[in-house]
From TrEMBL, chain A:
The modification N6-lipoyllysine is found at residue 109. The lineage of its organism: Eukaryota, Fungi, Dikarya, Ascomycota, Saccharomycotina. GO terms for cellular component: glycine cleavage complex; mitochondrion. It is found in: Mitochondrion. PANTHER family: GLYCINE CLEAVAGE SYSTEM H PROTEIN, GLYCINE CLEAVAGE SYSTEM H PROTEIN-RELATED. SUPFAM superfamilies: Single hybrid motif. This is Glycine cleavage system H protein. Gene3D superfamilies: 2.40.50.100. Binds 1 lipoyl cofactor covalently.
From TrEMBL, chain B:
CDD domains: LplA. PROSITE patterns: BPL_LPL_CATALYTIC. It comes from Candida verbasci. Signal peptide: none annotated. It comes from the Eukaryota. GO terms for molecular function: lipoyltransferase activity. This is Putative lipoate-protein ligase A. GO terms for biological process: protein lipoylation.
Length: 177, 375
């Protein structure tokens, strides 16, 4: 779907920098220093999510057993968007209703909205994306998380019909092509 | 809100009881009862009756207010049913339009803008800064997200404009997806937005714009201070007018749209938006947002603005349009009040606001004029 659309402008051979060739690993680009003091560090590198869900708009949601979740965009979306040049983040303390816009990503003159598939309160944002938006291209599913949300009700995730599990999301991607 | 919508047909009926229509008037009414003017009575149309129609629609706005046009575009986009394409044309009175994630202090010569009393707008799509005037037509092509393509609509424009019999300049697509003449002069700038299930590609098309004014509005020199930010930078390009008539251009692109999207079951409808068209409340709400300081200036991410004069170096740190911190390279009494004020209050970053707290008149005029020409 979006893949075909964005493709022509997204990556020109000339614009690939050596650091971008590592896109598919979870290694950080050299420009980004892993922040072990960040409150999200243990979520990203120590704890395992109890649920890992996806939306048809290509967001992912990793839910942890303290009833919080990390929201970001999938590897697929990150490739489809092309070079990310700006990330608009929500603010800590923002109230989010299911379906609300939680931020946006700009790439190649396009502003793409990011939606939250759950309701809750924003308790953390990934400040690193403000200075280095390209983290979203390098490592969208770990270091490129966008918002940390305290869920109103964890059952909303379990019962949601809009949220796909990994297998269904992959099928959805195949169908989309 | 819901209640209002429910009420409105009833209200409409209530108020329409007394209104005579053209068809109801006989010769006697016209002559003897002085009701002749009702011949010109036209029932006002409402934009909402078209925006959700399940057929391709071309909206041509006859309005020139940039705030209203951008708000109508946003409304049509939000209200469109998926899988029924929309095309909108609008021509704005002179204004400068920055991209959603840009910094006005960095992109625009605010001094010239304020001198010419030209409005500044921040649009909802990405990309760089453009200048609109009556010699420039804006188009907006809205479609499903799954059909989003950065090039397709510009190709349609190129094909149709090149086939106009009196077209003077052949145009083509460059590697960035911009429309340029064969000599490489840009005639159109594009920007895009993607939301749940839908997307639009809109752009400008230079027909007979005042390019010298455009240049002055967008060129800044280092004397006005150097801005460091993470906002989106505009890519400067050499530009040119196509010297076509507005109607010619609109008609040729409309024909292209009809060729592409009209089928026997799906006729293209053309709707003109003029002053008589009733606009929904959402449009007025968006106009207010587009006019607000918080959106135009406040939606700018952190930046620093550095000024140097002789041996003085002054750095202003601004976040969300508010001056947060002032750094001066030497002890300078002139900035004592400004620093004190900024440490305790939010100050909207405008020339006159900052100048107001600088005690030396000469310095205060200089700073105000550098920031945005207001002192």
């Amino acid at each position: 779907m979006i893949k075909t659309l964005f493709r022509p402008a997204s990556i020109s051979i000339k614009s690939i920098k050596p650091s971008q060739l590592r896109s598919f690993t979870t290694t950080n680009p050299l420009s980004f220093v892993l922040n072990k003091d960040s409150p999200q560090y243990k979520y990203l590198h120590e704890w395992k999510p109890i649920e890992h869900k996806f939306t048809e708009e290509h967001e992912y949601l990793k839910v942890y057993d303290d009833s919080t979740a990390l929201l970001g965009i999938t590897q697929y979306a990150s490739q489809a968007l092309g070079d990310v040049t700006f990330v608009e983040l929500p603010e800590i303390g923002d109230r989010i209703e299911k379906g609300d816009t939680i931020g946006s990503v700009e790439s190649v003159k396009s502003a793409s909205e990011i939606y939250s598939p759950v309701s809750g309160e924003v308790i953390g944002i990934n400040d690193a994306l403000e200075g280095t938006p390209s983290i979203l291209n390098h490592d969208p599913e770990v270091e490129g998380w966008i918002a940390h949300i305290k869920l109103d009700d964890i059952a909303e995730v379990k019962d949601s019909e809009d949220l796909l599990d990994k297998e269904n999301y992959e099928d959805f991607l195949k169908k989309d092509d | 809100m819901k209640q209002l919508i429910k009420l409105s047909p009833w209200l409409k009926r209530l108020y329409s009881i007394q209104v005579p229509f053209q068809d109801d008037l006989g010769a006697m009414d016209l002559d003897d009862l002085n009701l002749g003017d009702f011949k010109y009575y036209k029932e006002s149309e409402s934009l909402t009756q078209y925006t959700s129609l399940k057929q391709p629609i071309i909206f041509i706005s006859k309005l020139n207010n940039p705030f209203t046009n951008l708000a109508i575009e946003d409304y049509i986009y939000n209200a469109m049913p998926l899988s029924h394409n929309r095309l909108m044309f609008y021509i704005n009175s002179p204004c400068v339009v920055i991209g959603k994630n840009q910094n006005p202090w960095q992109e625009v010569n605010l001094r010239v803008l304020n001198d010419l009393k030209i409005p500044l707008l921040r649009r909802f799509s990405g990309g760089g800064t453009v200048v609109h005037d009556l010699g420039n037509v804006n188009y907006s092509y809205m479609t499903e997200k799954s059909k989003f393509n950065r090039f397709k609509f510009n190709q349609l424009i190129i094909k149709n404009v090149n086939s106009l019999p009196n077209n003077k300049f052949e145009i083509q697509l460059n590697e960035r997806g911009d429309i340029v003449t064969t000599d490489g002069f840009k005639v159109s700038g594009s920007a895009f937005k993607l939301s749940k299930g839908k997307s639009y590609h809109h752009g400008t098309f230079l027909l007979n714009s005042k390019l010298n004014v455009l240049r002055n509005l967008l060129s800044r020199d280092d004397e006005m201070g150097v801005v460091h930010s993470k906002s989106i930078d505009s890519v400067k390009s050499k530009v040119q007018n196509m010297e076509l008539q507005t109607e010619e251009f609109i008609e040729s692109v409309c024909n292209g749209f009809i060729d592409e999207f009209e089928t026997d079951d799906d006729r293209v409808r053309v709707v003109e938006i003029d002053n008589d068209m009733i606009l929904p409340n959402e449009v007025y709400t968006t106009v207010e947002k587009l006019k607000s300081w918080d959106w135009i200036f406040g939606h700018t991410t952190k930046f620093s603005h550095t000024f140097t004069k002789d041996d003085l170096e002054l750095v202003f740190h601004v976040d969300k349009g508010l001056l947060k911190q002032v750094d001066v390279n030497k002890t300078e009494d002139d900035f004592k009040y400004l620093i004190e004020y900024v440490n305790n209050h939010d100050l909207k970053y405008t020339g006159s606001n900052v100048a107001g707290y600088v005690t030396n008149d000469e310095v205060s005029d200089w700073i105000g004029s550098c920031i945005d020409g207001t002192i």
